[in-house]
Write a structure and sequence with these properties.
Helix content is about 15%, strand content about 15%. With about 140 residues, it is of the alpha+beta class.
Amino acid sequence: MTDLRQLLRELPVFAGDLPALDPADTPGEPVGLLTARLLAAVPARVPEPHAMTVSTADADGSPSARTPLLKGAGGTPLTRPAGAGTGPGGAVTPGWTLHTVRAESVEFRQDDRDRKHTRPAYRRTAGHRTKELLWT
């Protein structure tokens, strides 16, 4: 029988080259950083670079997280094409639900083999965004 713990500990961490992320060079808005990261990830053939974790909390503070695929950014609402993704009676077919999200906070994470991760974050306060660096 395989020792699962040993097997997991022997797997490489962050195989391949990791891109650099200098917080001082990040733009003032999260869409700019997201765009730059995607434009670098696609030609590098990063699998599913548009998959991201969206986390929320309800009124009681209970967290929820899901991993959707990004299909637009920058304030343009997403809409479902007319007639596409509907089933009998106009019910939405699974996989075609599109949402527009207005994030109050956005966090990015660039991993590091030495666990010195870079985590720039953007927060919306009083109608404008602030940028900060979370623990690394």
